[in-house]
Structure formats: structure tokens, C-alpha cells
Amino acid sequence: MARLVYQPQSPLNATLTASRRWATSLGVWGVGAGTAALLLLSVTPLVKREVLVKLPVLGSYYEDKTPASDKPF
To answer: What are the record's GO terms for cellular component (predicted)?
Structure first.
């Protein structure tokens, strides 16, 4: 018959164990939420100009190539 032996755990060790357990899940949810926020806010001129144009690979896709003469404002 197996015996269970109680081994006390320090508070620091318990905190590290819990944080390691949640880090991957929170990271995945954080990346998903950030991607969704950028997708939903990509039509906003401020987000487009300050964030999306400065992306290394996709920046040229979001640049405004409309001539100044064709802009109403």
C-alpha cells in the first residue's frame, strides 16, 4: 500500500510553481487579445499611422498611397 508523505513547501516555491503553470496560458491569451485588438482597430487612422505602418514586413501594405490632391480633407 502506498503511503503519502507530507512535504512542506516554501511560499516562494509555491508562487513560482503556480506562475509557471499559468504563464503559457496567459501568454497565448495575451497574444490572441493583442491580435484581435489590432485587427479591430486597424481602420483607425491613429493605429494605422503609429503602429501598423511601422511593422517591418507588413508596413508597406498599410501605407497611404493616395495623392494629396485626391484627399477631401
So the answer is: mitochondrion
Beta carbons within 8 Å of 47's beta carbon, 6+ residues apart: 38, 41
| Angstrom distance (rounded) from CA 19 to CA 25 | 10
Q: Using the structure block, give the residue that is written with the C-alpha cell 508596413.
A: 59
pTM reported for the whole predicted model: 0.61
Contacts of 17 (CB under 8 A, 6+ apart): 9
What is the full DSSP assignment across 9-68? --HHHHHHHHHHHHHHHHHHHHHHHHHHHHHHHTTSHHHIIIIITT-TTTHHHHS----G
Q: pLDDT tens for residues 44-53?
A: 989 988 989 9
